[in-house]
Amino acid sequence: MKHQAGVPEPSVMPLDDRAEWHRELNLSNFVNAYYQFRDVESLGAGRRLLTIGVGQGLDTQVFRWRGYEVVTFDIDETFSPDVVGSVHDLSMFKNGEFDVAIASHVIEHVAVPYLDRALAEIARVARHALIYLPVAGRPVHLRFTPHITPLDVKLVFDVFNYFDRPDGVNPKYGQGGHFWEIGRPGWSLRAVRKRLSAHFDVVNEYRNYDWVGSYNFVLRGKR
């Protein structure tokens, strides 16, 4: 894939000790793994999965435990993926090779000029996709669950710092950081949905109220 002049190439995470990060486990990892499993099961699409972005690997272990065939893919060999590469170039995989591709909090690390190519590649290699994305700002989350009825009332609103620009190459984020997030100027939920809809039909979308920093899309490729 030809590099675009003046655009940061997809790169590894800007962490001093990625191996240490890889070993961390937080509640969000377990929540995220559960929702991935739930969404894949809801599709009933098949058993062959491509996980883009290894992370802590909990989701991979859950899927393999439940009998799925999982191929892991990451740009950073530190995480020992099955295949090393960038999501904007999945040329090592055949058309429709996977039933579902999962990219959870991954594609916001891709600079915008490479983004549509990355989405097109995901839609090419998999019939369905889960794309989970970060929501910018600090969420204020109110939830009322009395546990004596099925009632579960949820309210989330986000407080944004419009002076904060995650351009992926500034000192705060480093190259390989977030280039965009839902809620940033130009990245409204509607705009993100429109970009995804160029390559996918939206089967389901939802704010994850158990991890409110995540907005999740369940998609079917248009190929």
Structure, described:
The chain has 223 residues and is an alpha/beta fold. The protein has a single domain (18-135, 180-221), classed as Vaccinia Virus protein VP39 (Rossmann fold), CATH 3.40.50.150. Helices cover 24% and strands 26% of the residues. It has helices at 18-23, 27-43, 58-65, 112-125, 189-197; strands at residues 48-52, 69-74, 83-84, 98-104, 126-134, 138-144, 153-159, 200-207, 214-221. Helix 2 crosses helix 3.
Secondary-structure map with pairings?
Layout: H1 18-23, H2 27-43, E1 48-52, H3 58-65, E2 69-74, E3 83-84, E4 98-104, H4 112-125, E5 126-134, E6 138-144, E7 153-159, H5 189-197, E8 200-207, E9 214-221
Parallel strand pairs: 1-2, 1-4, 2-3, 4-5
Antiparallel strand pairs: 5-9, 6-7, 8-9
Helix pairs in contact: 2-3
List its traits:
single chain, 223 residues, alpha/beta, Rossmann fold, seven-stranded mixed beta sheet, 5 helices, 9 strands, 24% helix, globular
Order of helical and strand elements: HHEHEEEHEEEHEE
Look up the CATH topology.
Answer: Rossmann fold
User: What is the CA-atom radius of gyration, in angstroms?
Assistant: 17 Å
The portion of residues forming beta strands comes to 25-35%
CATH class: Alpha Beta
Query: Between the first and last Cα atoms, what is the distance in angstroms?
Result: 21 Å
DSSP E strands, number: 9
User: If helices are DSSP runs of H or I spanning 4 or more residues, what is the number of helices?
Assistant: 5
**CA-based shape:** globular
How many domains make up the 3D coordinates?
Answer: 1
Low-confidence stretches: 169-175
The biggest sheet, with number of strands, parallel, antiparallel or mixed sense and barrel status, is: 7 strands, mixed
- What CATH architecture do you see? 3-Layer(aba) Sandwich
**Spatial order of strands in the largest sheet:** 3-2-1-4-5-9-8
- The helix-and-strand class reads alpha/beta
